[in-house]
Specification:
The structure is a single chain. The chain has one domain. It has about 120 residues and is mainly alpha-helical. The protein is built from 5 helices and no strands. Helix 1 runs antiparallel to helix 2 and helix 4 packs across helix 5.
Length: about 120
């Protein structure tokens, strides 16, 4: 269920990032492009026989999201020096944190299904 919520939050971040910044670039929708498959896989994982494989794919997506947004850490270090965050940096930071949370949730779900098998 948390996977579905994280997928929805990523979609919301992508849509808000694109509309609030007024950009026409497709890169503003990257969180939404990650959120949509995570949402679908979260919905599929509600069936006990699909949990294991769907969470493995979600782990891969979460890792790609983490690796793709880790550059936001430099922006966060600049924040500690008083430099304000831009809207794209906030979107990347939110995606970074949500992907880390999702990775932890997915790994726990995989371990739980392996132990129950």
């Amino acid at each position: 269920m948390l996977t579905i919520i994280i997928g929805l939050l990523l979609i919301l971040i992508g849509i808000l990032s694109r509309t609030l910044t007024g950009t026409s670039s497709i890169t503003a929708l990257i969180p939404a492009l990650f959120g949509a498959p995570i949402l679908i896989l979260g919905w599929l994982s509600l069936a006990p026989n699909r949990t294991h494989w769907s969470m493995i794919v979600v782990c891969i997506l979460a890792l790609l999201g983490i690796f793709g947004t880790y550059s936001v850490l430099t922006a966060l270090s600049a924040l500690s020096q008083g430099v304000p965050l831009s809207a794209p940096a906030m979107a990347r930071g939110s995606m970074f944190v949500l992907c880390i949370i999702q990775l932890i949730i997915s790994i726990r779900a995989i371990v739980r299904t392996v132990r129950s098998a």
